[in-house]
Specification:
With about 160 residues, the chain is an alpha/beta fold. Helix content is about 30%, strand content about 25%. Strands 1, 2, 3, 4, 5, 6, 7 and 8 form an eight-stranded mixed sheet that branches. Strand 6 and strand 7 form a beta hairpin. The longest helix has 13 residues. The radius of gyration is 14 Å and the shape is globular.
Length: about 160
Amino acid sequence: MSDLLHNEPVKRVQSVINLFDKNIKIQVLVNTARTALDAAKALNCEVGAIVKSLLLRKNDLYFLCLVSGDKRCSLKKLKKIFNVKDLSMADAQKVKSVTGFTIGGVSPVGSKSKLETLIDHNLERFDNLYGAAGHPNAIFKISFVNLQKITSGKIMDITE
C-alpha cells in the first residue's frame, strides 16, 4: 500500500502540500475512501469532516467545489451565483482529463488544470478535515483555514 505514495497523482498532491506545509502528510488507508462514508469509516470521523471534491462545468469552464461529506452540492445555488443556465457535474472521463484524478481520489489540490475553487461554508464546522490525495486510498488531514489558504478557494453557501 505504501507504494501508493509513488503513484503520480499522489506525488502531485504531495508536492503541492509540501510547498504549503511540509508537516502535512498523505496517509494511505487500508480500506478505500472512495466515498465520504467509506472515508469516514476508515478514519473513524464524522462524514461531514470528509471533503468531497466535485468537478463542475459552467458553459465551457470547469471549476472545483469542495463540499462537506454530509451535504449535497446545489446546482440551483451555483446557477444563481454564476448567473448561468448551463451548469452540470462533470462525467468521470472529464474529471480524469481535467484534474488528472479518478473519481474517488479527486484532491482539493494538485489538479492538472488551474481551477477556480469554491468551498462550502459547512466545512468550517470541523477542526480537522480530510481530503482525497490523488487516489481512493490516500487522504490528508487539514484545517478549514489551511484548506482555504492552500486552494485560494472562495467560501460560499453552495449546498442544499
